[in-house]
Amino acid sequence: MGSGSKSGLYYSLIRDNSSEIAAQSMLRISKFSARWISTLGLSIGINDVTPFVELSQAKADLLKMGYERCDEMIEEFNNGNIELKAGCNAD
User: Where are the alpha helices (DSSP H) in 1-91?
Assistant: First the structure.
């Protein structure tokens, strides 16, 4: 089934039939897999994919620092204090 293989299921379906047939087969396999996994009692809930508080805070802090640095650079540009790189101009 994997990618990059000329002997894979989906490559063979596309080569021998069409991309529509391969897409239909992907849909059927995904539905079958989801039903089979849920029948076994395995499931993935929203709590399994929701980031924990510390991660959300770290992300917010990182974004805040990035936005502050962007604001500083914009202010430097507006004041004419940014040193242009070779071959660049202010336009």
Answer: 9-16, 19-39, 46-49, 53-79
